[in-house]
Recover the amino acids of this structure.
């Protein structure tokens, strides 16, 4: 798709039929642009890169090389889903890199949030670069740029996104969804047959659980966070909140409090629930969660997650609290 301005005449993609027409047009354009050359894509598992991957697989099949870097800060089951959907079901050319140890070793003892972000972003580029330089004959780089990224060059993705490319890597870009809004990307993703959970995945920061495992990350606390977050997501799914709440997650701070379990002193971390609604992430309101459900979630997290002995609810809107804790 050429040009960075969405023509006024462009119809908003709201139906499967419109999505299919868009897909057919993009498949033709991608084939014309790429020819028989190879395209590289950093596949995070987020909505945009997943839709771009599915579109490119349809257009050029194995000429697309997807690299999924697991930085060890993904939510429970996410890397597995990327492997299942793209590696197995769509039979993509997928390189999976488990770089968990590299990231966690570098992050050990680092408590400053901006330093943590820099380490994660910098290491991500390094790992991606290493994988890319092992490959022969790549001419294009695909990216999941969407229209809001172009409109708000000061927006979330511009300064938040993990990744980016080393300056000496010279590729021509393939950005098939760059004129689409998020809701349109989702309609296209569904038309391409991607799983609903992947297409309607809630926003997830590039540095992942790294900014929710507050302070210096340790493996045991990161594990507790991931398990508690999985319980929250499961309960929101089961109770009809998943489609209603914009973003919901757990943060785990790096301090413990005293508790009691099986008549013994049981020190543990608190799990903090944050569930917010927003349209643009610039301001956010607090979703009201039924008390009975909060009790149930508390009961599950404190009984099922090793190391957590309290559950707290964050009632702070943005402003004054940002959505993430770090
Ligand atoms: P805040 O915390 O600034 O978050 O209110 C607004 C939105 O941005 C997401 N966020 C990030 N996304 N990298 C990202 O890709 C980041 O470092 C980052 N920090 C915050 C946050 O999840 C929310 O949706």
């Amino acid at each position: 798709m050429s040009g960075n301005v969405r023509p006024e005449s462009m119809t908003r993609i709201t139906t499967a039929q419109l999505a299919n027409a868009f897909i057919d047009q993009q498949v033709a354009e991608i084939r014309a642009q790429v020819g028989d050359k190879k395209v590289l894509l950093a596949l995070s598992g987020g909505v945009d890169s997943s839709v771009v991957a599915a579109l490119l697989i349809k257009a050029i099949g194995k000429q697309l090389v997807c690299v999924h870097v697991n930085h060890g800060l993904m939510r429970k089951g996410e890397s597995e889903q990327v492997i299942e959907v793209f590696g197995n079901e769509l039979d993509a050319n997928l390189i999976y890199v488990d770089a968990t140890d590299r990231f966690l070793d570098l992050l050990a003892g680092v408590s400053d949030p901006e330093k943590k972000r820099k380490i994660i972003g910098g290491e991500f580029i390094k790992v991606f670069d290493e994988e890319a330089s092992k490959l022969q004959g790549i001419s294009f780089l695909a990216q999941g740029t969407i229209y809001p990224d172009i409109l708000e060059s000061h927006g979330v993705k511009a300064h938040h996104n993990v990744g980016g490319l080393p300056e000496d890597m010279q590729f021509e870009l393939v950005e098939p969804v760059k004129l689409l809004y998020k809701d349109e990307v989702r309609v296209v993703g569904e038309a391409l047959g991607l799983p609903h959970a992947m297409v309607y995945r809630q926003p997830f920061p590039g540095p992942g659980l790294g900014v929710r495992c507050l302070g210096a990350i340790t493996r045991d606390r990161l594990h507790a966070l991931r398990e508690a977050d999985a319980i929250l997501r499961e309960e929101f799914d089961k109770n009809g909140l998943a489609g209603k709440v914009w973003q919901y997650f757990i943060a785990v701070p790096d301090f413990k409090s005293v508790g009691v379990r099986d008549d013994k002193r049981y020190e543990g971390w608190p799990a903090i629930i944050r569930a917010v609604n927003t349209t643009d992430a610039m301001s956010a309101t607090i979703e009201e969660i039924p008390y009975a459900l909060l009790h149930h979630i508390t009961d599950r997290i404190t009984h099922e997650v090793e190391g957590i002995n309290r559950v707290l609810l964050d009632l702070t809107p943005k402003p004054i609290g940002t959505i993430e804790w770090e």
Remarks:
- Residues 155-163 have pLDDT under 50 and may be disordered.
- The radius of gyration is 21 Å.
- The pocket of xanthosine-5'-monophosphate is lined by residues 117, 156, 160-161, 203, 205-207, 211, 247, 281, 318, 322-324 (CB under 6 Å).
- The domain at 2-199 is CATH 3.40.50.620 (Rossmann fold).
